[in-house]
Amino acid sequence: MQDNDDKSAAVSPVFNGDKATDGTNREPKANDEVSSKSEETSPSKVIESLDIIAGVSEKRFGRSHSESSDEDEVSGEESDEEEEIPPLLKYTRLNKLPTNFFKRDSISACLFHEDFFAFGTHAGLLHLTLPDFTPIQTVKLHRSSILSIHSDGNYFATGSIDGTVAIGLIEDLSTVTSFDFKRPIQAVVLDSDYKSSATFVSGGMAGEVILSQRNWLGNRIDTVLAKGQGPIMGIFTVDDVILWMNDAGITFCSIHSRAHLLNVPFPTDDKEEARPALYRPHVHFPESDRIIVGWGDHVWMFKVSLKTNGEYGKNFGSILSSAASSLRAVPDKKVELEHYFRIRIHMAGIASFKDDQIMCLGFEVDDIENKLAAKIPELEIIDTVSGEEIYNDEVVSKNYQNLSLNDYHLGKHIGKTSPEYFFISASDCIHVQVFSLKDHFDWYVQRENYLKAWEVGKYAVSLNDRLAVGFQYVDQLITDKQWKNAASFTAAIISIVNNSEDKQVKNETLQKSQDVFLNIIENGEVDYVYDTIPTEPQLDKHLYDAILSFFLKELKLKEFFKCIQKWPLRVFSYQKFEEQLEERIEKHDELEGAYRDAIIHLFLVQKLYSKAIPHMIKRKDIRALSILLTHNLISQFADDILEILLIPYDDTLENLPNLPLDKLAVTFRIPIDLLVKNRHSLEVSKIVKKLESPKQLRVILFLYLKKLSVIDPDATAPLENDMISLYADYQRDQLLNFLKKRVNYDVERAIEFCSKRKGFHNELIYLWGKIGENKKALSLIIDGLNDPKLAIEFVKSWGDSELWEFMVGYSMDKPKFVKALLDSPDEFGKIYLEVIKAMPTEMHINGLQATLVNICRSNALNLQVSENVFKLIDDESKEYGIEYLKALTKGKVININDEL
């Protein structure tokens, strides 16, 4: 049998079979006419259920069939606990074939073409059907068993044990032509263009591969391509390569050149003589350039490589033309053996499955005397790369006890959605399909594995069916008291129907979901609901209220707060809970803070800032400052100014003055900005009054007035006298600068303040100078600061000669000042003279000699410069005088007319 539909691979996901969930084994029904397995065979491998043969199969993990049943019993309990895995295949017994197929006559050969199916029987009948088994026609072609069927799509050919080959047109079976070869025909192949060439190749027990063609007179002309190497067990073609199987093994020949491309001997067994003629070979073409051969328990994989030698004929006529040539043609093809492996079973059929996998039909042969003895047939999925078995089913066929290996057939047909396979024996026909997603869904539902059914149902069933299974899984979780999983899964169901356009489905789902959540809440498992119950779409308010009431009653305030943060106000009765929170706050217990946090959140969400601020002040919530600043609400809370100012501060008032001023400025920046911004609605005097006592608050008052004086100097003008003491206490180094910039303070009061404090010389000097008491200021510089440089600069800044004389006279008993006066620049020589005249004769001044030398040198230089300047001026004056005298001696032209 040749499979012409093997280029496509299955597209459904692969799942491995497993045993039934109830631990029972499926036995054939008595009224189903399904052959049951013998008692000594493990019933767990029997695959039957009415006319549906369900895939109760096992995935092999290196286990052989020879392992003892005792071991199976020991590991039975453990395997039952493992998660069930759906089978890979499903089986359905076909009843569309004529009943006489399996009663009076039986199938001996099959062909599964993409357009039709052909079945040959042991009585020599050929049945043609459509792929859905609708009969086309039945015709008697041979006197005995048909062993081979082939078609080019228009014509068919059958080979029989009676020695004849019958060829006819599929659309008209009355045109059948029979060819007698006198010996049983095991294989026949038509030319790809039989209509034009009338050529076919056959072979059988005569041991010859014969190419036959009718000449123009209608006579048959035979050409022997190979002979003398045992019966021909199979003949196949791919493109322009023909291959056959006999005792010599597998031989490939080029149709174009008639050259033998490759021969692979049938492997010999060390324990027994190899008998290739005992088994029927099976060939499969997964791709246009690849060939898989299954023969006995051997599998070969070949690759055919094309060579670009130009165009030439690819039909069997090419063999005849090359045979007539006196020269041997050069091989135009190359056939390579890519893989070879042996499998556990002897094959009765082979077909591509998916990706790098093949399906094999057969069973194990371990009886040397009766190699084809009856056994339960098996379907195996083999990895073609590794040769390992990855799946196995034993399929009980009717009357399997009386059937041998060559009584089974495996065919493949590409259906509308996925490949389908046909397991055919002399007594039975079973439809084999890959377990679809819908099959997986049903399989899981039957075993109450609703979670898996839910997952698969996304791609396999309608939304309604999937939702039904989803709620069955939820009921299962609730029964098992898996509250958390039940709540989470219910939320997942709701999210799926949220965007559904079917309002009825959505409403029914929401109602069922509400019942689930209510059930969980009533069982006291609220902790598993609050974090999963959805708010979009919204369920009944009483569900959300019930959760919040439970948490409030049980004092689970963390969960309560999390809920009101997460849920929009529309889903629960927030006003009712605001009232309850207010009542609890009034108790002033240890949970007061948590209650306030909750009610603050509710008020802020509603933008009820005026209600939220009092609670935020109590909680020292820094957000209150931003709200007051943004929404201009500070005037409503004038009585709480102090509390508002202290919101960012978490320590005691006693420690407030101990903090660095820069840190305090950062801490109180926002509340001070708030007061400054609202200076027109909050009287500055009232704020000052609040911050004057206790004294620890004065530092905040200082920061406030300092900021306010920059933004609005007029607002602090009446407070400048008080600010002097604040600067003196908290920012001493900036007091002088303040005194210089401000004009609204009382200078006399400022002088009195600075005079009473130690070290305020610079401020006093400025203040004395400001009121014209320059001599007092100078005396303070000389006596208090002992700073001659500052004294000299002070005098120069006023430009008062009397003050200068006072400084010279007042400092003559102070060598440091005398030295400084002599070292200071003297542009006119008066300073040096006055100082030297006034100096006490007995005063000791360090470095006086050097100073006098410098003075003399400076005077000499000044004198020299003066003389040079005088000389330049004198010379220029003389030049101008001479020019003037010359000008006087010159006459002047007068125009009389101009004068008139």
Automatic annotation (TrEMBL):
InterPro entries: ARM-type_fold, Beta-prop_Vps41, Clathrin_H-chain/VPS_repeat, TPR-like_helical_dom_sf, Vps41, Vps41/Vps8, WD40/YVTN_repeat-like_dom_sf, WD40_repeat_dom_sf. It comes from the Eukaryota. CHCR repeats lie at residues 675-820. SUPFAM superfamilies: ARM repeat, WD40 repeat-like. Residues 1-86 are annotated as: Disordered. Residues 89-432 form the Vps41 beta-propeller domain. PROSITE patterns: CHCR. Residues 69-85 have a biased composition (Acidic residues). It is found in: Vacuole. Its main location: other. The keyword ATP-binding does not apply. One of its GO terms (biological process) is cellular response to starvation. GO terms for cellular component: fungal-type vacuole membrane; HOPS complex; late endosome. Pfam families: Beta-prop_Vps41, TPR_Vps41. One of its GO terms (molecular function) is small GTPase binding. Keywords: Protein transport, Transport, Vacuole. Residues 19-42, 57-68 have a biased composition (Basic and acidic residues). Belongs to the VPS41 family. This is Vacuolar protein sorting-associated protein 41. It comes from Torulaspora delbrueckii.
